[in-house]
Write a structure and sequence with these properties.
73% of the residues lie in helices and 0% in strands. The chain is an all-alpha fold.
C-alpha cells in the first residue's frame, strides 16, 4: 500500500529531525523563548539545518501518503518515528542499543498494531465538503490559543508539554489541509487548481506555525515532556479531523477497550524511548551517556 510506505518514510524523516532539532535547541538561551530571534539563533547551527532538510523530505513523503490514503490511517503510523529513528541511530553510530529502547520500540509497535487493528480506520471522502472548515478552524484556533496561554504562564517541562501538544495540533491541521489540497490534483486541471486553492497556502502557514511551536517546546523542556504529547497528540487530533472533516470511520463499542490499551502501550513506549541516551544525542557510549529526565 503506497500510503503506508510513504507514511513510514515520513515517520523516519520526522523522527530524525526531532532529535536533531532537540540537540540544536539545547544551546538556545531562555531569553529567546517564544521570540522570532529563536529561529535566527537556530539558523546558525548546522545540526538544526540538517533537521529542517529532513522536515522537507518528510513533507513530500507525507503529501504522497495523504494523497493515496485516509488521514486516519496515515497519521497514526507516525507514532513509529521515534523508535525507528533511535534503532537506526544505534545501527549507524555502531553502538549497542540499550534494552529499554528495544522494549520501548516493542511497546510502540505493538500499540500501533493493536490500535490500527481495533479501530480499522477507513472510508471517507478525499475532500472536505461545504463550509466544514469554518468551525474546524475556529475550534482549532481556540484550542491552540488556550495551550499557548497556558504555556506562557508555566516553565520547564510543563511548558514543553503544552507547546508540544500545540505543535501536534498544528501538524495535524497541516495534514488535514494538505490532504484536502492534494485532492485537487485529481481534477482535470490538477496543478492549476492546486495552486489556486487556499488550502495549499494554509498548509504552509500551519506547518510553519507548528514548526515554531515545536522549537519552543524543545527549548523549554526535555524530550520526555515533548515527545509523548507530540506523537500522541498528532495521531489523535488527526484521527479527529479524519472523522469530522472527511467522514472517515472507526470502530467503537467494545473495540474502545483494546484501543485504550493501545494508547497506554504507545504512551509508555514513547516515554521510555524519549528518556534514552540515543534520544538525548549522547550515544557515543550508552554506558556513559547522560539520561534525559
Amino acid at each position: 500500500m503506497i500510503s503506508v510506505l510513504f507514511a513510514v518514510l515520513t515517520a523516519l524523516s520526522n523522527g530524525s529531525a526531532s532529535v536533531l532539532q532537540r540537540r540544536a535547541a539545547l544551546d538556545v538561551p531562555d531569553r529567546e523563548a517564544m521570540r522570532l530571534s529563536l529561529i535566527g539563533h537556530l539558523l546558525r547551527q548546522k545540526v538544526w539545518l540538517a533537521g529542517i532538510a529532513l522536515v522537507i523530505v518528510a513533507a513530500v513523503c507525507q503529501a504522497v501518503a495523504l494523497a493515496t490514503g485516509p488521514i486516519a490511517v496515515v497519521q497514526p503510523i507516525f507514532v513509529i518515528e521515534l523508535p525507528a529513528t533511535l534503532l537506526l541511530a544505534g545501527f549507524v553510530m555502531r553502538v549497542r542499543v540499550p534494552r529499554p529502547v528495544w522494549l520501548g520500540a516493542a511497546a510502540v509497535t505493538a500499540g500501533l498494531a493493536l490500535g490500527m487493528a481495533s479501530a480499522a480506520p477507513g472510508g471517507g471522502s478525499e475532500t472536505v465538503h461545504g463550509a466544514a472548515w469554518v468551525p474546524a478552524l475556529a475550534l482549532t484556533g481556540l484550542f491552540e490559543a488556550a495551550l499557548i496561554a497556558g504555556a506562557r504562564v508555566t516553565r520547564g517541562n510543563s511548558r514543553a508539554a503544552l507547546l508540544g501538544l500545540a505543535a501536534a495540533c498544528g501538524y495535524a491541521l497541516t495534514a488535514a489541509l494538505m490532504k484536502d489540497a492534494m485532492a485537487r490534483l485529481s481534477d482535470g486541471d490538477g496543478v492549476v487548481v492546486l495552486f489556486e486553492s487556499w488550502q495549499l497556502y494554509a498548509t504552509a502557514a500551519a506547518g510553519v506555525g507548528a514548526l515554531f511551536l515545536l522549537q519552543n517546546a524543545l527549548q523549554a523542556g526535555t524530550l520526555v515532556a515533548v515527545q509523548p504529547c507530540l506523537t500522541l497528540g498528532d495521531a489523535l487530533i488527526s484521527v479527529l479531523y479524519g472523522v469530522t472533516l472527511f467522514g472517515e470511520e472507526l470502530r467503537t463499542g467494545w473495540w474502545l477497550l483494546p484501543e485504550l490499551l493501545a494508547l497506554v502501550l504507545i504512551t509508555a513506549g514513547c516515554v521510555e524511548l524519549a528518556r534514552s541516551p540515543l534520544a538525548a544525542g549522547n550515544a557515543a557510549s550508552p554506558s556513559r551517556a547522560r539520561r534525559v529526565d
